[in-house]
Every structure is written in C-alpha cells, then in structure tokens.
Amino acid sequence: MAARAIWPVTLTHGPVTLRPMRVRDEQAWAEIRQRGFTWFSPWDSTRPPGTRESAMTFPRQVREFAARARRGDMLPFAVDYEPEPGAPAVFCGQVTVSGISYGATCWAQVGYWVDPRWAGRGIIPLAVAIAADHCFSTLGLHRLEVAIRPDNAKSLAVMLKLGFHDDGIRERYMHVRGAWRDHRTFSLMSEDVPEGVVARYERYVAQHGEHSRVGESGADGPTLRPGSDNTEH
To answer: Which of 96, 153, 199, 232 has its CA 20 to 30 A from that of 38?
Structure first.
C-alpha cells in the first residue's frame, strides 16, 4: 500500500536523527566500514553460492533503496549523531526497515549497525526506537521483527533495552561469513508499547542508569554494503 509511504522523511529525538541515505555518504560510510572491519566482519552477511544477483555500487544501491522506499517497501535510514549540543552531526550508522507488508500482516523487519567509534552511547537503541515509533504510529504497522546471531551479545542487549520479545532460534536463517547461520529472532507489537518505544527506552535508561548503555554492534537487515545484500550490526 504505497499510499501509506512517506518518503523521504527525517526523524529526530534528542541527539539522534534518522534521515535518508545519500550518495554523498559513500566516503564516510566506506571509512567507517574499513576502520571497523574487525567489529563488523563476524556478522556480515554473504552471498550464497550460485546466487544470481549481481553486486551493486554504493550509488546504485542508494538509489535502488530510495526507489523501494518511495514504493513503501522499506525505510533505509542513515543515523546522524550530535556529540554535543550545537556540535555538527556525524554520520554514524544505519537503521533499515525492510519487507514492509500491510494487509493481514502489517509487519516489517529491522536491521541496524553503528560506527564502533560511537558505540556505547545509546545511539542505536534510541535510533531503533525512533524508527519503531514511526512504523507503529505513522505507517500503522502491527509487528516488527529483528534477527540477531546468538553470539552477538551487544546487539542482543539492544533488544533487552527496548523490550522486544525473544521468539527463539530460527535455524540456518541467513547466510553469514560463508555459511547458513542460526539466528535468534525478536518481535515487538504495537499494543506492547502504548506509551511509545522511545518513551519505553528512556524509562529503561532512567531506571538502570548510564551503565545500561553497553555496546550495540548490530542486527541483520538489508543495509548498504556493495557486494552483499545485508549487513548485521
């Protein structure tokens, strides 16, 4: 139902802003991915043998994702962070809502990653919460799902902070590092958070203190990575 799509859209709460990915983000994106190779590599998705899909350049993928967003199929957000009030915002990661479906399901999947330089500041939990509130309140979705490798402790912590339900293991769910890997899946329904996901996260931080903002490496989803469909962080 493309009529429900609102794209491009920019969403801001506190120091975190979600905005559309841009072709001119390529240099910053590449620098983060190269500098953080050891941070990202355990979770990066790969192409199964025999895949027929060709690799895309960064500009082509940005444009393809933007076209899908205008059709209402996905929301490919860049994450900007303002380190100090009034300081210039920096590009530090992505949150991608994909597989948006309406009708009898009204659900989507969420993937995310953050620059290791800015990990531990609560950026990704807040960014995912902002995106989730938009999906529930503006797009009218009922369910969001996230898939995470069972050994990705930092990303699992994001689900705890946001109150996602642990739905268990899906065997051989996604091709990662050359093999089909099991993933833990998590879900959140709109009726679970009548107060909003951002409000729930802020309450969690208020109750548990600053120490709750441990790292947030990533979750699976179709984020921008020339040569691959998805990346997990």
So the answer is: 96
